[in-house]
Design a protein that fits this description.
- The complex is a heterodimer of chains A (about 450) and B (about 260).
- With about 450 residues, chain A is α/β, with parallel strands linked by helices.
- Chain A has 20 helices and 14 strands.
- Helix content of chain B is about 70%, strand content about 0%.
- In chain B, helix 12 packs antiparallel against helix 13.
- The chains are: A alpha/beta (about 450), B mainly alpha (about 260).
C-alpha cells in the first residue's frame, strides 16, 4: 500500500476505508464506507498473500465492467487484494509516463500499439507464462498474438480491436434518396455523391459526412489500399504524394459542400458521443472506430449501419485494426499471479460475458460464440461487421519513437487545407515535419 | 525543481536515461519547433489583451459597488462567484455551450441578423472566447480594488468637491493615483496567473489547442511535449524559459512601477 496514496481514487478510498473498518480500527469509518458500493475485495484479512495493482483507462461503464471481472476473480482467490487505478485516456497516459520514470508501474496495465514502442522495455515477456500453461492463448487468431509481439517479444495480450469504418445514419440517407445498405460496397466517389445528396437534402444545417481527412486511422486504411502503412521499418511509410492524394479526396468533398464548415467541424471534433454531429443529426455519416457504433446508436432514431472505408480508385478494400491490449509490468513482484489473472480475463466464460465486446473485435471465435446470443442488436451488428471484414483487416504495428507526435501532423495538415492551403503545399510541409519528428 | 533545471539541458524521453545535449533543446525551441512561436504569440495576446480588460472590468465594478448601494455584500458575493469557478473544468465546458454554434451568444446575435457561427470553432475568434472567460473572472481583483477604495479617506474627496473638482476629475486625480499600489498588485498577480493559464484552453479545445492551434497556450504545448510525447527534457527547458519570462515581466513591472505607483505615506 506504500504507493497507493499517490493515486488514491474514490473507489480506492472506499476500499481503504472499508479495510480499516474491517480491522475494527474505527467503527464509524466502516459505516461511512458501507454506504458506498464497496467492491467486495476488502478481503485482505489474515490469509492475504499479495496485493496487486491494476490500471486502465475508460469511462464509468468500463470501470464497472473491469471491477466486476476483478471481483469475480477475487471470489476464487480471497487471499489476494487488487488496487485499481483508473482514469480517462489522457490522464491515464500522463500517470503512466510518470510511473514509468519512477519504475513504479502497476502490475497489470492497459496498452496499445501507439505507445508500446516507447514502453516495451518496461513490460514483462509473457512467453514463459504461455509456455508453462499459466496463460492460455490457444484460441486466439494468430494476427492478434502477432499484434502483441514487439521485436519478437510477446509483451501484451489483445483484448479487442477497433477499425475505422463508415458509420451511416440509414434514415438520413434514405430521406436524401441514398441507398444506405449499399454503403458496404462504396468507392470514394460513391461516398462523395451520397454525402453531397445528404447536404442538399437539408436546409443548410445538415451535411453529408463529418470531415474525416484528419482521422489518422482512416488515412492508415487508405495507405493500406496503396500498399503501404503509416510507418515502415521505423520510418514514415507514406510519401508526400500519398498525403496529397488523401487531402485532395477530402478537399473535393469540402468544395462540394458535403462537409460541415470548418468552425462547426472543429467545435464538435472532441465532443462526447451523445454530443457528436452524428448523434445530433447534423451529419448523415462519419468515419469512426466501429466499436463506437453501438455507443452512438441509442442517440439516433434510425439504424446506424457499418461499412468498410470506401475504396479509392485503383485500390482494394482494406482496413486497419487498432488494438487495445493488457500487459504486465517488468517491475511486478507478482507477475505469475498477474498472468493467471490475464488468463482468467481472456478465457473465463463469465469474465468474457461481463466484458463482452467493449473494445471491439474479439481475438478468439470462442469469445464471440459465448456472447453473440446475449448481446443487443447494435452490438451484434458490430460483431457481424467485424466478421465480414476479416479477410482484408490488417493489424496495426507498434509505432517508432516519435510516432505519436508525427501522426498528429495529419489532422494539422487537413486543417490547413480546410483553411485554404493547397493539398500539395500542406502535404509537403507536414510530411517533412512528420519525417523530422521520427528521425530526431 | 533543480532536477528539472538539469533536465532542461538533456534529451530525456522519460523512460530512458537522460543524455546531456547542452543548449539543443533551446535551439530546437527557437529555430525548429513549428508550434513554439505560434504558442508564444497566443499566450502573449492572451496575457496582454486579457489582463488589462479583466482589470478594467474589475475596477469599474469596484468603483460602482463602492457607492454604498443597498445589498452590497450580496452583489460582492455574486460578482466574486465566477472567480471561484473561473478556471474550472465545469466552467470551461459551459463556455463551449455559450460560444458554440447553438450557444447562448448566437441565440442573441442571430435574431439580430448575424450569420450563425461557432465562436469556439473559428480560429479567428476562439482565443477571444478564452479572453472573455478571463474577463469574466474579475471577482478576485475586484474585491482587492474594493478594499483599496475603502482605504481612500473620504475627506480627500470632500475637499476636492469643495474645490469644485468634478466626478471625472476626482476619479483621475484622486482615485487612480491613490489606488495605484493596489492596481500594481493586481496587475502583477494576474499577469503571472495568465501566463500559467492551462485549464481553459485544455478543456475548451479538447486538449488540442485547436482550432488550427489558435488556442495553443504555451503551457498546453509544454504539457503535450512532456506528458503526451514524453519529451521531458524539452518540456523542462520550456518550463524554465517560462519561469524566466514571467520573472522578466514581473521585474519590468516593478521597474516601471516607480513611474506610476504612488505609495501614500
Amino acid at each position: 500500500m506504500s504507493t497507493s496514496s499517490r493515486t488514491l481514487g474514490r473507489r480506492q478510498f472506499l476500499q481503504t476505508a472499508g479495510g480499516l473498518g474491517a480491522l475494527g480500527l474505527a467503527g464509524f469509518l466502516g459505516a461511512c464506507s458501507g454506504g458506498g458500493n464497496a467492491t467486495g475485495n476488502g478481503a485482505g484479512g489474515a490469509g492475504s498473500t499479495a496485493t496487486l495493482r491494476m490500471a486502465w483507462w475508460g469511462g464509468a461503464a468500463r470501470h464497472d465492467k473491469k471491477n466486476a471481472i476483478i471481483d469475480l476473480y477475487l471470489e476464487q482467490h480471497p487471499e489476494l487484494t487488487f488496487n485499481r487505478e483508473f482514469a480517462e485516456w489522457s490522464g491515464y497516459w500522463e500517470r503512466f509516463a510518470t510511473q514509468s520514470a519512477g519504475r513504479n508501474l502497476p502490475d497489470i496495465v492497459g496498452m496499445t500499439e501507439q505507445q508500446v514502442g516507447d514502453y516495451v522495455d518496461l513490460l514483462a515477456d509473457l512467453q514463459p507464462f504461455v509456455d508453462d500453461g499459466t496463460l492460455d492463448l490457444s484460441g486466439f487468431e494468430q494476427i492478434y498474438i502477432d499484434g502483441g509481439t514487439v521485436d519478437g517479444k510477446l509483451c501484451m495480450v489483445f483484448l479487442g480491436g477497433t477499425m475505422p469504418s463508415l458509420i451511416t445514419n440509414s434514415g438520413m440517407l434514405e430521406a436524401a434518396g441514398v441507398d444506405a445498405a449499399a454503403s458496404v460496397d462504396w468507392t470514394h466517389e460513391d461516398l462523395r455523391e451520397a454525402a453531397q445528396a445528404v447536404s442538399a437534402a437539408g436546409d443548410g444545417s445538415q451535411w453529408g459526412i463529418q470531415d474525416g481527412g484528419g482521422d489518422a486511422g482512416a488515412f492508415h486504411s487508405f495507405l493500406l489500399q496503396r500498399d503501404t502503412r503509416l510507418f515502415v521499418d521505423g520510418q514514415l511509410g507514406y510519401t508526400v504524394d500519398h498525403l496529397t492524394e488523401w487531402l485532395e479526396l477530402w478537399d473535393a468533398l469540402r468544395r462540394d459542400g458535403a462537409l460541415p464548415p470548418f468552425d462547426v467541424q472543429s467545435e464538435f471534433a472532441g465532443a462526447p458521443f451523445e454530443d457528436t454531429m452524428l448523434a445530433r443529426g447534423m451529419v448523415g455519416m462519419v468515419i469512426a472506430n466501429h466499436n463506437h457504433m453501438p455507443i452512438l446508436q441509442p442517440h439516433v432514431d434510425s439504424d446506424l449501419l457499418l461499412a468498410r472505408p470506401p475504396v479509392v480508385e485503383g485500390g482494394e478494400p482494406a482496413t486497419i485494426v487498432t488494438g487495445t491490449y493488457v500487459a504486465i509490468a517488468e517491475n511486478s513482484q507478482h507477475a505469475e499471479i498477474a498472468a493467471d489473472f490475464l488468463n482468467f480475463y481472456v478465457n473465463d466464460p463469465e469474465a468474457i460475458r461481463l466484458f463482452r465486446a467493449e473494445y471491439g473485435t474479439l481475438p478468439a471465435q470462442e469469445q464471440v460464440d459465448l456472447i453473440i446470443d446475449e448481446v443487443d442488436d447494435p452490438m451484434r451488428r458490430a460483431l457481424d461487421y467485424a466478421a465480414a471484414v476479416t479477410d482484408f483487416a490488417v493489424i496495426d504495428i507498434p509505432r517508432p519513437v516519435g510516432g505519436l507526435e508525427a501522426v498528429q501532423t495529419i489532422p494539422t495538415a487537413n486543417e490547413a487545407v480546410a483553411l485554404g492551403q493547397s493539398p500539395a503545399d500542406a502535404a509537403a510541409t507536414y510530411h517533412a515535419q512528420a519525417a523530422d519528428l521520427i528521425s530526431s | 525543481m533543480t532536477a528539472s533545471l538539469v533536465l532542461a539541458f538533456t534529451d530525456y524521453r522519460l523512460i530512458d536515461t537522460p543524455s546531456w545535449i547542452g543548449l539543443d533543446n533551446f535551439v530546437r525551441m527557437f529555430t525548429m519547433d513549428p508550434r513554439f512561436w505560434p504558442a508564444v504569440l497566443v499566450t502573449l495576446i492572451y496575457v496582454f489583451v486579457g489582463v488589462p480588460l479583466q482589470l478594467t472590468v474589475a475596477f469599474t465594478l469596484a468603483v460602482l459597488l463602492d457607492r454604498g448601494i443597498r445589498g452590497l455584500s450580496w452583489y460582492r458575493a455574486v460578482f466574486y462567484l465566477p472567480s471561484l469557478l473561473g478556471g474550472s473544468v465545469a466552467v470551461a465546458l459551459l463556455w463551449r455551450k455559450v460560444f458554440g454554434r447553438d450557444g447562448l451568444f448566437n441565440a442573441v446575435l442571430v435574431p439580430l441578423g448575424f450569420e450563425p457561427m461557432s465562436w469556439i470553432g473559428n480560429p479567428d475568434t476562439a482565443l477571444l472566447t478564452l479572453i472573455a472567460l478571463l474577463m469574466w473572472q474579475f471577482g478576485s481583483p475586484m474585491i482587492i480594488f474594493l478594499a483599496g477604495l475603502r482605504q481612500i479617506p473620504q475627506e480627500i474627496y470632500d475637499a476636492a468637491a469643495v474645490d469644485g473638482v468634478g466626478r471625472i476629475g476626482r476619479l483621475v486625480r484622486i482615485t487612480l493615483p491613490l489606488l495605484s499600489p493596489v492596481t500594481f498588485f493586481n496587475l502583477v498577480l494576474q499577469i503571472v496567473a495568465a501566463f500559467q493559464a492551462f485549464t481553459p484552453a485544455y478543456i475548451v479545445s479538447g486538449g488540442t489547442g485547436g482550432p488550427a492551434d489558435s488556442t495553443l497556450f504555451y503551457t498546453l504545448h509544454l504539457y503535450d511535449q512532456g506528458f503526451r510525447f514524453l519529451n521531458m527534457g524539452y518540456a523542462s527547458a520550456m518550463a524554465w524559459l517560462l519561469v524566466l519570462v514571467i520573472g522578466g515581466f514581473t521585474a519590468a513591472n516593478f521597474l516601471a512601477s516607480k513611474h506610476w505607483v504612488h505609495y501614500g505615506d
